[in-house]
Each structure stands twice: as C-alpha cells, then as structure tokens.
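Entry 14. Structure prediction run on the chain below.
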Amino acid sequence: MTPTADQSAAILASKLRAREPFSFWRFGDGFLELAAGRKGMTCDHEPYSEALRDGLLDVWTGLVTSDAPGVYFGDWQAASFVGPKDPSRYERDWQQYFGRVPHEQFLHPEALLLMRESEPLVDFWRAVREDPRRKAYFGPSENNETAKALGCEHVRTRMKFVLEDARHYQENLQRGDWDVLLFGAGLAGMIPAFRCWQRHPERTFIHVGSALDPVGRGRSRHQQLSQARAQALFAQIEAVKV
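Output returned:
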C-alpha cells in the first residue's frame, strides 16, 4: 500500500535530515493527457504541444528506466482529488506508464502539498528550512519571500510558456552550486529539472509543485488551504517568517 501523505512527508523529511540524496517526481492527469495526444492546456495555461509531450515522455523514460538509487514517484492514483469524468481511462493510462514501477518507489502525491494541516507536513518544511546545505527553489516569482524564508536561492519562472524558456532555465539550474532543488514550475518545468538531475544525480530533487503557492502566490488550486491558514501553518516552522 502506498504510504499516506503524512507518512510520505515523514519519509522525505528523514532523508533530508540524513543528507541522503534522492529525487521525488509527480506525474498526474496533465501528463497522461499529453502522453495520449489529447488537446488542452495545463492549469497554468501552458498549451499542450508535441514539444511538451516529447519532452515529458523523455523525462518519464529517463526516470522509470534509471538504476539511480532513491528515485520516488507520487502515486497519482492515491490522490484525494482524482475525479476524472472517465476514471477507467486514466487508470489504463497510468498503468501503461507506471504499472511496472516497483511499489517501494511510490509515495503519496499530496505528501508536501498545503491541502491539510498536520505536524508531519510542518516537519517536512521545517527539515527544509533547517538543512544547512545550499538550496534552490525553481518556481514562480510570487513565491520569492517564501523561498527566502526557507533559505533557498530563487530561480524565478513565469508560469505560462515555461517550455519556451526551458533551455534558459536548464542553464541557470546547472550553473547553480546547490545540493537541494525544490521545483514547482508546472509540467514544463520538470524538463529542465530532469536535465539537471541527469547531470547531478548525487543531488536532491524534490518536486513540490504548487505546494508553496498558498503561502506566497495565493491559492492556485481549489483544494489548497486558504492563504491565511497556509501562512499560519508555515509560521509554525522555527525561524520562518512569512
């Protein structure tokens, strides 16, 4: 059985504190839609395109066939917000791409998201804040103060047409002398993060997605805590002021 969100947050926090290199990646219905060649756009208004599809399939291939230790995936089927119009379609698609991934590589996809109020969730972000290693956050400009509060250098991105600047972001990430990367730059942002992981598998890569949005940027998903509740949650982290 996939660990719960709180259990998964605790696992990732323990790895941070042990300075154990790992990577955590989250693929969801947007990836499945793209991989199936369907039309549309991401919730950040990044248009679906053949280039985005090919780039994400390259990320998927590289990760699921890698023998690098410590590669984890969010088990999208365990998400509380999964409710597509045709669940069986997504289930078939998910099994096609992730059915052969060993179960021990799955964690809960909502592990780090500010959709709940819990001590394990707070403790994960506390582990990030207390980690003395060099850290970077690759995500929207509006989350700059939150990134700074966590002790992260901020590689800022716009959230629409990220793919257009993917090579620029990749170069910025690869120039950075950091040990831990938190990234939440939409589906397209996975591509430069993955390229950097290929070059530095000894580093830690954590796909936080929209986790920091409720604190800084404001709610970007209806399942998230309100900004006031998210900021109150983050205020529990020692030495963090938001």
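The chain has a mean pLDDT of 91.
Filed with the rest of this week's runs.
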